[in-house]
Design goal:
The complex is a heterodimer of chains A (about 290) and B (about 220). By secondary structure, chain A is mainly alpha-helical. Chain A has 13 helices and 1 strand. The chains are: A mainly alpha (about 290), B alpha+beta (about 220).
Chain lengths: ~290, ~220
C-alpha cells in the first residue's frame, strides 16, 4: 500500500482511479469496515462541519476573552453585500472558516480536521466548492477522503501539531489537504491535486503558532480564513498548469524540519509572535489577571 | 498506511482544544467510570499547562462534565457547572505540582457516597488521547482506548492466574497486563488491556473470585 504521497499518487495513476479510492481501500482494510460504513462515518462528520460553518454566520458567539466574537457574521454580511475586492465566493469561504473558529472558541461542537485549532479550513473549502459545482453529498465526501488520506500521510511522516510544528503544521496541513480536495472537486487530475497540495504548504512554510493569551482565537481564526483561501488559490495555480519543482514528500519533509527549527516561543506556548506583543500581553493580563 | 482517516477527520468534539478540552473530559469520564459509585464532590488538582491555561480552554468545565459522565462531544459540556449544581455535586479546582507528570495532568479526588477514598491521576496527551497513570496510589499506565479491565485484589498467590483463567475460558485474548502493589502481601491493582469487550457477566465472575476486591470494565465508547 502507501506510506508516502508519491506512493499514493502512483497507486492511483497505475490503476486509473481517484486517490480517494485508494484511501478508501486502505481504510476498509485497516478497520475491517465496509465502504458504506466509512461513508456513513464521513457523512456524520460532514454534518458537524456544516453546522459549525454556519452557526456563527448570523450572530456572534460569546467566548472567554471574546477576541473573535462577531467576526464570522461581519464577514458573512460583507459577502452578501457583494464581497468587496475578492467577491462573494472568497468572502463566504472566509466567513465559514471564521464561523468554525467562533464555534470552537465558544465551546461548541466541531470536527477537528486535522486539529481543533484548524477546524475551519476543510469545511469552508468543501462546502463552498461543493455549492459552486452543485455537487451531491457523496462526491463531496470523496474529496473529504482524499483530504483525509493525505492528512494521514502528513500525520505519519511529519506532524499536525502546532506545539511541534507551528501553525504551518496545523492550518498549513489543512490548507494542503483542502487544496488537493478542491482540485479533485474541480475535475483536475491526481497529479494536479498533489501540485496544489505542494503549493499550499509552500505558501505558508514557516508560519508560527502564536495564540494571544494562549486562546484558540487570535490569530487562529484569521489563519483559518486565510489558509482556506490559500487552499483555493493553490488549487487554481495547479489547475492553471503550474507544477511544483519540489516533490510533495520533500515539501512535507521541509515543513517538518522547518517546524522542528522553530523556537519553542513560536510553537503554541503563547510566548512569542503576536502573543508576546505589548498589546497581546495586556490582553492576557486582562483575561487571566496575571 | 496504519493511520485511519478518522484520526485526521476527527474527533468530533467540543472546542476549543483537543488536549485541554476533549482529552480532559475523556480523562475525567474514564475516572468516574472506574469509581463506579455515586459521589457528591470531586476535587481537581491541576498540573503544568492545565494549571496555567485551564480557564481559557474550558478545561475546568470539561473535567467536571466528564466526571458527570458527559462525552467529549456532548454539547452540554459548557454548562457542566450548572448541571453539577442541579445534581447536587460539589467541585473545586486547585493548582498542584505533580512532579514528573506530563504538562497536561490532573489529580481527581472523588468523595464517594460510600465514604471509600478514591483518586485517579492522569494525563491528556494531545488529539484527545489520554493516559491513566495512578489509581488510589497504584502506579499504572493505560489509555482506555481499548477495552480494559481494572481489578483490585489482595496480593495473594494464584489470584492473577484465576483472573486470566476466566478470560481464557471465555475466549478473550489479553493484549497487555500490568500489576502494581503498594506493599507485598497487601492490596494490588491489576490492569488488563483486552482485544475484545467483556460482558458484565464475565466481570461478575472475576469479582466473585477469591481475593478479588473489585473489578471494573472500561470500554472505549462506553
Amino acid at each position: 500500500m502507501y506510506n508516502t504521497i508519491s506512493e499514493l499518487l502512483s497507486l492511483a495513476e497505475a490503476r486509473g482511479v481517484g486517490m480517494w479510492e485508494i484511501v478508501l481501500e486502505n481504510e476498509i482494510k485497516l478497520n475491517e469496515e465496509s465502504a458504506e460504513t466509512v461513508f456513513e462515518k464521513l457523512d456524520q462528520r460532514y454534518e458537524v462541519m456544516l453546522n459549525s460553518a454556519s452557526r456563527a454566520l448570523e450572530r456572534g458567539l460569546p467566548a472567554v476573552g471574546g477576541l473573535i466574537t462577531g467576526f464570522a457574521s461581519a464577514q458573512n454580511r460583507f459577502a452578501e453585500a457583494g464581497g468587496g475586492i475578492t467577491g462573494p465566493f472568497i468572502n463566504l469561504v472566509m466567513a465559514r472558516a471564521l464561523s468554525c473558529g467562533e464555534v470552537n472558541a465558544s465551546m461548541g461542537k466541531i470536527c477537528a480536521f486535522p486539529t481543533a485549532g484548524a477546524c475551519g479550513i476543510l469545511p469552508a473549502v468543501l462546502i463552498t466548492a461543493g455549492e459552486k459545482y452543485s455537487m451531491d453529498r457523496r462526491t463531496i465526501l470523496e474529496a473529504m477522503l482524499t483530504a483525509s488520506g493525505l492528512g494521514a500521510v502528513i500525520t505519519r511522516n511529519a506532524t499536525v501539531s502546532g506545539a511541534e510544528g507551528g501553525c504551518q503544521a496545523e492550518c498549513g496541513a489543512a490548507a494542503a489537504m483542502a487544496a488537493a480536495a478542491a482540485v479533485q472537486m474541480a475535475g483536475g487530475s491526481c497529479r494536479t491535486a498533489i501540485n496544489a497540495f505542494c503549493f499550499a504548504l509552500m505558501n505558508c512554510m514557516g508560519l508560527v503558532c502564536d495564540p494571544i493569551a494562549g486562546l484558540v482565537q487570535m490569530p487562529c481564526a484569521l489563519r483559518n480564513a486565510s489558509q482556506a483561501v490559500n487552499a483555493l488559490i493553490s488549487a487554481d495555480m495547479a489547475l492553471a498548469g503550474i507544477t511544483s519543482v519540489i516533490p510533495a514528500d520533500e515539501v512535507l519533509e521541509a515543513m517538518f524540519h522547518t517546524g522542528r527549527s522553530l523556537p519553542a516561543a513560536l510553537k503554541e506556548t503563547a510566548m512569542g509572535g503576536l502573543a508576546a506583543t505589548p498589546a497581546g500581553k495586556k490582553i492576557q493580563a486582562d483575561i487571566f489577571g496575571l | 498506511m496504519d493511520i485511519s482517516v478518522f484520526e485526521v477527520a476527527g474527533p468530533v468534539m467540543i472546542g476549543p482544544s483537543s488536549s485541554h478540552t476533549a482529552g480532559a473530559a475523556r480523562l475525567a469520564r474514564i475516572a468516574a467510570r472506574i469509581a463506579a459509585e455515586p459521589f457528591h464532590h470531586v476535587s481537581f488538582g491541576l498540573h503544568g499547562s492545565f494549571a496555567r491555561t485551564y480557564k481559557g480552554h474550558g478545561t475546568d468545565r470539561a473535567l467536571l462534565a466528564g466526571a458527570l459522565g458527559m462525552r467529549e462531544d456532548d454539547e452540554r459540556l459548557a454548562d457542566s457547572f450548572d448541571i453539577a449544581a442541579e445534581r447536587g455535586v460539589g467541585y473545586d479546582f486547585h493548582e498542584m505540582d505533580l512532579d514528573g507528570f506530563h504538562e497536561n495532568s490532573v489529580e481527581m479526588v472523588f468523595a464517594l457516597d460510600s465514604g471509600k477514598p478514591f483518586s485517579v491521576t492522569g494525563s491528556s496527551l494531545g488529539g484527545g488521547r489520554i493516559a491513566v497513570k495512578r489509581i488510589n496510589g497504584f502506579n499504572l499506565d493505560f489509555t482506555a482506548h481499548v477495552p480494559t479491565l481494572v481489578i483490585e485484589q489482595r496480593d495473594e498467590k494464584g489470584v492473577i492466574s484465576e483472573i486470566t483463567g476466566v478470560l481464557a475460558n471465555h475466549g478473550i485474548n489479553i493484549g497487555t497486563m500490568r500489576v502494581s502493589r503498594t506493599a507485598k502481601g497487601e492490596t494490588a491493582c491489576c490492569v488488563i488491556e483486552l482485544d475484545a469487550e467483556v460482558s458484565e457477566d464475565i466481570v461478575a465472575r472475576i469479582k466473585g473470585l477469591n481475593h478479588v476486591i473489585t473489578a471494573i470494565a472500561v470500554h472505549p465508547e462506553a
